[in-house]
Write a structure and sequence with these properties.
Blueprint lengths: L3 H20 L15 H8 L6 H4 L5 H14 L8 H12 L22
């Protein structure tokens, strides 16, 4: 006979992995991008020139992603994105925006290594 404590333990072993799988974003196995609306456009346009990791390791707000796109268009040969630009920006802002656990802040100037002149 199964005791109440054993029943709770068995139920926890079944429910917890299922709830974890539901809450975790599904990632594209090739790029590591979160699979969601617009991810195919991001994958096609971004990985044509650089690794997906260059996107996934960064956290920027929508304006900064747009500035980055403009910089790539002016200096790196990125083509005009047309109507895809809004979808790409929506995707990037949703999945790769700043988080509290992202990169650390830059070192203050007084802690930077001194350059001899």
């Amino acid at each position: 006979m199964i005791t109440f404590k054993k029943s709770i333990l068995l139920l926890s072993l079944i429910v917890l992995p299922c709830s974890y799988a539901i809450s975790e974003d599904k990632l594209d196995k090739d790029s590591g991008f979160v699979v969601d609306t617009g991810f195919e456009l991001v994958k096609a346009n971004c990985t044509a020139c650089h690794s997906a990791a260059l996107v996934t390791q960064n956290r920027m707000n929508r304006e900064t992603w747009l500035e980055t796109i403009r910089w790539m268009q002016k200096s790196q040969g990125l083509w005009p994105l047309g109507e895809s630009e809004k979808v790409i920006l929506d995707y990037l802002a949703k999945h790769y925006s700043p988080t509290k656990t992202g990169r650390r802040k830059n070192l203050p100037a007084h802690l930077m290594p001194a350059v001899e002149k």
